[in-house]
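USER: Write out one fold?

ASSISTANT:
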Amino acid sequence: MNTQDVYVVVNASPWNYLVPLYIFFKGLSVGALCISAVYTVFRSERFKTLAFPAAITSLLTFIPVPFLLLADLHQPLRFWHLLVNFNPTSVISWGTWLIILYPLCLLWYIARLGLSQGISIPILKGVQESASTSQGTFGLGLRGLSILTLSLALLADLYTAFLLGVVKGKVLWNSALLPGYFLTSAVVTGAALVLIVYLNKKPEEKTVRTLVRIIQGALALEIFFAISQWITLGATSLQGQKALELLWKDPVYLIGDIFLGILVPLVLLNKPSLNKKPVLMIGALLVILGGLLLRFSIVGVGIQAAGLWN
């Protein structure tokens, strides 16, 4: 005898455009920081000139995140309630603290990185003055601070996928692949944005090529996650097959993300050279667009598949 789980959602809050935008900007920030960390954590000298611009890009792209979150909550005091009433068994409680701790560490990281490269940041003057003595006080050097900030960033990005994953009745979201899928997309979109920023400065050929290789590798990994998701959805249940059907019929996903956001950039970013700056810029912009459309599609189709599309 076959049994099916039926989930009834009462007074469900509508999921609108703010949610995918929130996920997108947070992913951009995390991805840009990952590029900065290639130098500060993994000590790749080739990325030394990229580290600071990437860190600033990470900070700037994070700015919309708390505003989008508060706007989506409708009641800003709910955020404060989650903050002061921490529940260690709640995914959203952990996420609330990550949203606070990550940008604070990011500011400290930028201040320390600026000091190490002789860059003065007027708006962070006080932070830089404190950071100049922090190594002796706390015993945490730039690399240690980089590892801490990167860890918080990765957890902040993964948290969203975990939060979606525990929502019952959403077969598209209830996948162990979603955290890796989102994180890969975050890295590739953040790296693409850093590439655009770097191309408008004084780029070095070897650094550009290495950065493009990272983007290409992440795009290939994104294809792996997409195909794996198709296979698992099609092989699970009728609900999964319906979700897969909706996903394939969604032009935002199939044309926007898969074709324009992955396949076309792979062609445009092939054999990168500073002589092809406009082509590299277009390829990077398409990668970012694809990352945005992916989030709209995953959130939208996930709700539509559960019959709760608003």
Remarks:
- Residues 18-305 form a domain with the Formate dehydrogenase/DMSO reductase fold fold (CATH 1.20.1630.10).
